Amino acid sequence: MEQKITLHNWQKEALKEWINNKGQGIIQAPTGSGKTYLGLKLMEKESLSPFLVVVPTVELKEQWKERIRKFYPEISVRGIGGGEKYNPNRTLDCYNKTATVAVINSMRDQPFSCKTVILDEIHHYSLLAPENFKIWDNVDYKYIMGLSATPVPERLARIGGGWDIPLVYRYTLSQAYRDKILLRPEIVLKPVNLTETEQEQYDALTEKMRNNTKKFVDFDDAPMWFKACAFERNEILFNSRMKLRVLEKILSEIEFKKAIVFVERIETCNEIARRINEIGIEALALHSELKRKERKELVSRFINTSFPIVLVNAHIFEEGLDVPQVDLLLLYSYNSTRRENLQRIGRALHNTKTTPKIFILYYRNTKESKIAKRIKKFFESFE
Question: Which of 160, 203, 298, 340 falls 20 to 30 Å from 178 in CA-CA distance?
Answer without folding.
Answer: 340
